[in-house]
Amino acid sequence: MPPPRLYAGEQLRALRHTAGINQRAMAARLGLSVSYLSQLEGGERPLTAAVLAALARHYPQALAGIEDAGTARRLTALGDALADPALPPLSPDVAARLAEERPEIADRLIALHAAKRAAEERLALAEEALVAGGPARLPWEAVRDWFHEAGNYIDPLDRAAEAHPGSHDLERALADHGIRVVTDADPDAPIARQDGETLILNGALPNESRRFQLAHRLAARAFAASIARIVDGSGLEAMEARRLLEVGLANYAAGALLMPYAAFRTAARTVRHDIDRLSRQFGVSFEQACHRLSTLQRPGAAGVPFFFCRVDMAGNITKRHSATRLQFARFGGACPLWHVHEAAAIPDRILVQHAETPDGVRYISMAKGLVKPSGRFARAPRRYAVVLGCEAVHAADFVYADAVDRAGPSTPIGISCRLCPRAECDQRAFPPTDRRIAVEPGVRRIVPYRVI
Fold first, then answer.
1. Hey, which residues does 310 pair with through a beta bridge?
2. Interval 170-185 mean pLDDT
3. Measured between alpha carbons, how far is 334 from 274 in angstroms, rounded to an integer?
4. Can you name the residues that pair with 308 across neighbouring β-strands?
5. Which end of the chain has fewer CB atoms within 10 angstroms, the N or the C?
6. Beta carbons of 325 and 117 less than 8 angstroms apart
7. In a 3-state reduction of DSSP, which class is residue 269?
8. pLDDT of residue 269
9. Of the ranges 53-57, 126-130, 403-407, which one carries the lowest mean pLDDT score?
10. 145-170 per-residue burial string, b: 16 or more CB within 10 A, e: under 16
11. Residue 71, class by beta-carbon neighbours within 10 Å (0-12 exposed, 13-18 middle, 19+ buried)?
């Protein structure tokens, strides 16, 4: 028996009015014609699985009241699985029929693809551990991996921060917890330190950094019990790792206090993830806004899946997270063809790149070089770059995608030279660990070997 037809014209029209966009803009975002969208809103046509899947990608919160939302989410996950080059391609219509008529097969494909990705990540971790000299992890590596395995979304802290009333007046909220705030005029003083019930902040801090430190201390005090439970259940044994995780969780909650989940996610969608506009609206730094966007993975109300990382002038990745299929190397630097390296040398300029990884997935990424002043001539400022990107299928929701020709060629990038299978790359620093090389003394190449 075929599934019942689903008409939801009123809900669709209400969604568009809430988003503040016209039919043309919404049709372009959903990949529909204006006339087709008009017929859907008028109740003349039912919502198909393909339309529901587009709604699930761009307006997942709107599906809560739509009876067939499960099919839409299944089709979205199935589309991700079928995008893997290792699987045979299926047309959108065939995939939609599979999700609707044979959900048990669709779910098995989705589960198999998730298992394949997990196995690939474990293999990459094992290869990199061998390269680095062994499987032992330093405390900061263990904490970094814990956040990665948690999906960089910590639900109890995120919801507690969203419901906390103190985010509008951080100093008053701290005072309610018995903490007073003072400023240290010494530019060489620590960024922040607590002395009993007094929080001492460096007077040279920019306003965004000052607010973050206030939010961090408020989160550490207000959510102490939740943070302790998470640390106890983390499986981390080393005391240094447990303390680093406490700090990291308080940092996470601070970001959630300054950028509450629902409000920030709605604003991000409205401005198509324009970081400068989000930074101004929420009073946060460029980096803080980028990092927060990579954490918007609440079940049933997820944001666009982004990857985010921070790279220093030497190419070291000092922060990393990915909600996409792109995964960062745990050891060593990033691909030299990645535009983040150029951005680090050009502060306050945004670079956009259309790139393709060896698995055939295309990404749009934005990178910006940043400088944190030292406060004095004798001490060098901190220079680094942040990068935020998403898969090209989400380009309509990423304002920076407007700066590239997505129909044109993409830049071939890899994860790192040791893990990249591209044989013809002339930017290699090292050969891949799983491939043989041929050395031909009579032939001069850019690199002194040929990958075979």
1. 319, 386
2. 95
3. 25
4. 321, 388
5. N
6. yes
7. helix
8. 93
9. 126-130
10. ebbbeeebbbeebbebbbebebbeeb
11. buried
Q: Which residue has the tokens 């014209």?
A: 9
Residue 336 CA: distances (Å) to CA of 177, 314, 332, 429: 48, 11, 11, 9
Cβ atoms 258, 212 nearer than 8 A? yes
pLDDT of 67 strictly over 60: no
Total residue length of the chain: 452
Q: Which span out of 46-60, 116-130, 287-301 was modeled with the highest average pLDDT?
A: 287-301
Cβ(195)–Cβ(177) below 8 Å: no
CB 230 within 8 A of CB 265: no
Residue 420: pLDDT band with limits 50, 70, 90: confident
381: CB partners within 8 A, 6+ apart: 371, 372, 373, 374
pLDDT confidence of residue 1? 43
Gyration radius (Cα) of the chain, Å? 24
The per-residue pLDDT for 261 is 96
Span of 43-57, 142-156, 360-374 with lowest mean pLDDT: 43-57
**Residue in 306, 190, 180, 319 with CA at minimum distance from that of residue 248:** 319
| Residue 2 pLDDT > 70 | no
Confidence at residue 11, expressed as pLDDT on a 0 to 100 scale: 82
How many Cα atoms are found within 13 Å in the side-chain-facing hemisphere of 437? 16
**Residues in CB range of 149: below 8 A, 6 or more apart:** none
The yes-or-no verdict on residue 256 having pLDDT over 70 is: yes
Which has the minimum average pLDDT: 51-55, 182-186, 232-236, 293-297? Answer: 51-55
Cβ neighbors of 411 (< 8 A, separation 6 or more) are: 337, 339, 353, 354, 355, 356
3-state secondary structure of 183: strand
User: For the sheet containing 350-356, what is the strand order?
Assistant: 317-322, 306-312, 382-391, 362-372, 350-356, 411-412
Partnered with residue 152 across adjacent β-strands are none
Task: Give 46's DSSP letter.
Answer: P
Secondary structure (DSSP) of 299-365: TTS----EEEEEEETT--EEEEEESSS----SSS---TTSTHHHHHHSBT-EEEEEEE-TTS-EEEE
* Cα separation, 333 vs 320, whole angstroms: 12
Residue 89 structure tokens? 């391609």
Mean pLDDT across 130-157: 79
* Helix (H), strand (E) at residue 391: strand 382-391
Share of the chain above pLDDT 70, in %: 88
Pairing of strands 192-195, 350-356: unpaired
